[in-house]
Amino acid sequence: MKITKLGHCCLVLEVDGKKILTDPGTFTTAQDELMDIDIVLITHEHQDHFHIDSVKKVVVNNPRTTVVTNAAVGTLLKKEGILSTTVGDGNSAEVVGVYIEGFGKEHAPIYGDMGKVENTGYMVADKFYFPGDNFHTLGKSVDILALPVAGPWMKISDAIQFAKIVKAKKAFGVHDGMIIPSFLGFTSMVFKMFVPETEYTTLADGETKEF
């Protein structure tokens, strides 16, 4: 699987001859110019993961793309005239030949009712897990983990514990748009120290890596 990190949680996955764009949010704009996107995968409705103006541009540039998301985001898309395939917690679908499974129902707590939305983590092609903003466990093996490393809903020990539970073969950091680049070396050091069984990589914005 080839993965390009556009920034924060916006990625382009190349799997089984298909291109999948994840979480086109407000932290990135590079997705607005992409072509040949087969699937747009959206975990939840917060703007750093789901920017409707960006989604509209992606759909216009890729008229044959299929948007896959949960029911909550699907409702927002429908209001804008954009159809989607719903894959929520415990559901699965084969989309243009790519198998996608949904895990989890809720965004991780921030404080009180703040930020409470439906959040779905996605397993793609039985290889890659993209949890969105919650550490939903899967109960199955993971080859590649997109690991959230920063945010108002988590601390670094949460990410470490999740990585230890998942036991992915390989992992790289996401949800890191608020981290200054010089601090990314610290997060890498921490995961290599406490989760040595997982090969951890730091992907810079715009970087592509074969996993």
* Shape label: globular
> Number of helical runs?
4
Count of discrete domains = 1
Largest sheet: 7 strands, mixed
| Secondary-structure-derived class | alpha/beta
Strand order of the largest sheet: 6-5-4-3-2-1-14
**CATH homologous superfamily name?**
Ribonuclease Z/Hydroxyacylglutathione hydrolase-like
Cα radius of gyration in angstroms: 16 Å
Average per-residue pLDDT, rounded, comes to 97
CATH domain class name:
Alpha Beta
Low-confidence stretches: none
How many strands appear in the DSSP assignment?
14
SSE series:
EEEEHEHEEEEEEHEHEE
CATH architecture: 4-Layer Sandwich
CATH fold topology = Metallo-beta-lactamase, Chain A
Share of β-strand residues:
25-35%
Distance between the ends: 5 Å
Helix content: 10-25%
What does this structure look like?
The structure is a single chain. This protein has 4 helices and 14 strands. With 211 residues, it is an alpha/beta fold. The protein has one domain (2-210): Ribonuclease Z/Hydroxyacylglutathione hydrolase-like (Metallo-beta-lactamase, Chain A), CATH 3.60.15.10. The chain has a 7-stranded mixed β-sheet with strand order 6-5-4-3-2-1-14. Helix 3 (156-166) packs across helix 4 (184-194). The longest helix has 11 residues, at 156-166. The mean pLDDT is 97.
Set down the secondary structure blueprint.
Blueprint: E1 2-7, E2 10-15, E3 18-22, E4 39-41, H1 52-61, E5 66-69, H2 71-79, E6 85-86, E7 92-95, E8 98-103, E9 121-124, E10 128-130, E11 144-148, H3 156-166, E12 170-174, H4 184-194, E13 199-201, E14 208-210
Parallel strand pairs: 3-4, 4-5, 5-6, 10-11, 11-12, 12-13
Antiparallel strand pairs: 1-2, 1-14, 2-3, 7-8, 8-9, 9-10
